[in-house]
Amino acid sequence: MGLVSLEQMCKKAYENGYAVGQFNINNLEWTKAVLLTAEEQKSPVILGVSEGAAKYMTGYKVVVEMVKAMLESLKITVPVAIHLDHGTYEGAKLAIEAGFSSIMFDGSHYPIAENVEKTKELVALTRKLGLSIEAEVGSIGGEEDGVVGMGEVADPNECKSINDLGVTILAAGIGNIHGKYPANWQGLNFDVLQKIHDVTLGTPLVLHGGTGIPDDMVKKAISMGVSKINVNTECQLVFAEATRKYIEAGKDLEGKGFDPRKLLAPGVEAIKQSVRVKMALFGSVNKA
Ligand SMILES: [Zn+2]
């Protein structure tokens, strides 16, 4: 199967009460680990690519061609989307040109009127090409009395304005945080999620910052319309930890342990295991 958009993938997840994981990729090893695990688990999967990661891999075109070739060489049969993560207005256009099957346009830092204007234009462009688009609504501030424990929270009215443009999926802060969660984090805000769900009925919602949210909160969010969950930091942490252990145990100094295919293997296995656990938690196993 070639690349697909998020349209059917997330709609099916929304209707059947599970979520599809977006796992961000950084290089060949990451991509291979995520694709092999998705195939093994018979799960649909979204490969997230940030503008920084695309630049690191020397360009959008390289990423698209690598993924397409890998789908063929690894004989991947599950639905796979390649999705621009937190794209700028310019980056979104470049990713589309290079062959991404889906984009996220993050206009959350613009005033709402400008976010609406730019999202509207990109909705028209992606619809014309049969691609999917994720939009993001700005945060109304995760800080209270100088405490960042609240995370990002969106205004449901603004969610409605962006949703009404016809976006495929919508990212809106419900107390989630990118990266590691602080000790004083107050958890996901289900009152806000319910309000957003009520005004965007029918549109699958996206939960960013999927590393470190307790399992019961993840499951509750999925039951309230979250159909795509982004996982990035977690794979980076387990990859670094496994690689560090390998080197600290002196294994790179034994025989040909310095061979990158051996040196990077524990990290790749660690990513696979994290992806397996997330797919089981999100309920996407055997949903391909
Ligand atoms: Zn994000």
Per-chain topology:
Layout: H1 6-16, E1 20-24, H2 28-41, E2 45-50, H3 51-56, H4 60-73, E3 80-87, H5 89-98, E4 102-105, H6 112-129, E5 132-137, E6 152-153, H7 156-163, E7 169-172, E8 174-176, H8 190-199, E9 205-207, H9 215-223, E10 226-231, H10 233-248, H11 260-263, H12 265-282
Helix pairs in contact: 2-4, 2-12, 7-8, 10-12
The chain binds zinc ion.
Zinc ion is lined by residues 86, 178, 208, 230.
List keywords for this structure.
288 residues; alpha/beta; eight-stranded parallel barrel; 12 helices; 10 strands; binds zinc ion
Describe this structure in words.
The chain has one domain (6-233): Alpha-Beta Barrel (TIM Barrel). The mean pLDDT is 94. The protein starts with 5 loop residues before the first helix and ends in a 6-residue tail after the last helix. The chain is an alpha/beta fold. α10 (233-248) packs antiparallel against α12. The strands form 2 sheets. Strands 1-2-3-4-5-7-9-10 form an 8-stranded parallel β-barrel, surrounded by 9 helices. Strands 6-8 form a two-stranded antiparallel ribbon. α5 links the parallel β3 and β4 (102-105). It contains 12 helices and 10 strands. It binds zinc ion. Zinc ion (ZN) is lined by residues 86, 178, 208, 230. Zinc ion is lined by residues 86, 178, 208, 230.
